[in-house]
From TrEMBL:
Transmembrane segments: 25-47, 78-95, 107-128, 134-153, 165-185, 210-232, 253-282, 294-313, 325-342
Intracellular or extracellular location(s): Cell membrane
Domain of life: Bacteria
Organism: Microbacterium limosum
Protein name: Iron ABC transporter permease
Family indicated by similarity: Belongs to the binding-protein-dependent transport system permease family. FecCD subfamily.
Amino acid sequence: MSTATTAPGRPPGTAALRRPAAVRLAWLGAGVALLAVLFVASVAFGVRDVSLTEILAAMRGDAGGIGEAAVVLRVPRTVLAMIVGAALALSGAAMQAVTRNPLADPGILGISPGAALAVVIGIAFFGLSNPYSYIGVATIGAALAAVFVYAVGSAGRGGATPLKLALAGAASAAAFTSLVSAILLPRVDILETFRFWQIGGVGGASWDRIAIVAPFLALGAFICLVSARSMNSLALGDDMAAGLGVRVGRARLLAAVGAVILAGAATAIAGPIGFVGLVIPHLCRLLVGGDHRWLLPFSAIAGAALLTFADIVGRLITRPEEIEVGIVTALIGAPVFIWIVRRQRVREL
């Protein structure tokens, strides 16, 4: 597989793989087809496998049988897995563009753990119970975590280098996760309620929950997508982007806001799920190149596919019990994280 040469003015290591439009469209079509197959598989497989006839009957509104009833329950779960996976992948791709850091990810940079900590604090000490308040508090927690990690990573000589941001994010994520455990352990009632949410999962999904979170995810996705062109300019470096007429600070802030909204809302509804935002953008760059106008939508499709696949695997390998998707994505993402570190040597995009 050949790579394009580095564009003039682009730092070493930022060369984007270029692909003809026909190849990109082919990969997008393949991604959509794979997502459709995973949707059917997610509805069909679980504690009780469901036949195609039962799926079609349930889609027509017949929920009288056990299989049809299972389909009715699995469809919103599948939809939630898809929109959360798409949101996390979009958020990760935007964070990598904003920081020019190949290791940027809502989990690794401490943003998802920061959102989780904010939600737990709100529930334990302020009695939050409204789903909208969960999303608002999670978004605020994600934003504060992002600011904190960037401030720590910017300290000292050299400013916010990719290595310093990665280390600051990893340390902050560990601290936030420990604080969540410290708050939950003495509170048995809260601990039982959020035991699986803390791991990260899409079980118990309903259309009401999806309707609550969908506007926030749509807003975050819209902000990231309209920032795609400015993300391409940021990849050239701040000086080059400014020379092209891009307001660097404004572009970086807008893309970061979209990423934080996506990460906060996804964490509020599904818990802190890691590695999706790290793995997917790297895979998508290999397939469709580094142009964010293509990379962002393809990342959304691939992220939806990954989380849906992880949910299917978690339901099948230990049935009738389930493994939450947060555990499955960690098992998939950890080796990829190590590979990226060894391959990129924590250099800038």
